[in-house]
Design brief:
Layout (H helix, E strand, L loop, with lengths): L4 E12 L4 E3 L10 E6 L4 E7 L2 E4 L10 E3 L6 E3 L8 E8 L4 E11 L6 E4 L6 H6 L2 E11 L2 E7 L2 E8 L4 E10 L5 E6 L4 E5 L2 H4 L7 H21 L6 H22 L7 H21 L1
Parallel strand pairs: 1-9
Antiparallel strand pairs: 2-7, 3-4, 3-8, 4-5, 6-7, 8-9, 10-11, 11-14, 12-13, 12-15, 15-16
Helix pairs in contact: 3-4, 4-5
Amino acid sequence: VFVFMFLRVLDSVSVLEGDSVSLHTDVKIQRDDHILWMFGPQESRIAEIHRQNIYIDAINTIFEKRLQMDNQTGSLIIRNIRTEHSGLYKLTILSNRGNSYKRFSVSVYALLPVPVITRNCSHCSLSETSSNKNCSLLCSTVNVSAVTLSWYKGNSLLSSISVSDLSISLSLPLELECLDDSYSCVVAYSFTNRTTHLNITDLCQPCPGQQQHFQHIFFLNVQFIADHSLCLLQITSRVSISLLIKHRLMLYSALSYCKSLTPCLNLTTTTTTLHTVKQQIKSLRENF
């Protein structure tokens, strides 16, 4: 009578905390087969099938109310798995067809947080805000380990950063032109990931504190253009002259305020415009 021993290599299994995992025997058990599952460096028995009877040894252990066995294959199912269940699982199959052994290295990972994309206002610049073509963003995730944080444009990787086993917070900046919504930030384990897609409409706007300043400059530019157009009208009545004086006074006040801001419009241009408007107001009053 020949008895064969089959040795199997180590199988690695990665799973998220809270999921269920099945460790497969890859056999169909016979009546007299003895299936034994052990866990950890002490090789503590946690489950077995002997003469088609199932025994679960999990009372008062970390596996209590979590283990099941398939009565057809002897595969072990761990429900609602936790990080404390990470480790080495050893399977022994004793059969009149020969003995076989299999080992599983199970790694349980914490749930991945959703990456958060924010405006990176620590890198805001005047040119960025005024043109509104470039956008400085920051993708962040907290309390992670053994992950990679990446920026993508479509399916193309733009940049990435990785962390090993330390539980830390990660951030990854990105400078881009606000052209479309095809950008995304991904935090990933080797076997799964979570993704946040960029909404350019919400994020690529002037930074807090600068938006109000440039709204004022925008109003000033519109006011200047409108007032310049009004200059082209032929003044035919005292009412029109009075209206133009009011417009000139408003423009002079706005230009004076803008000149006090830094940065603002070109100071030389602003000073010249102030002088011109002041002379126009004087001339209009003389003709009023």
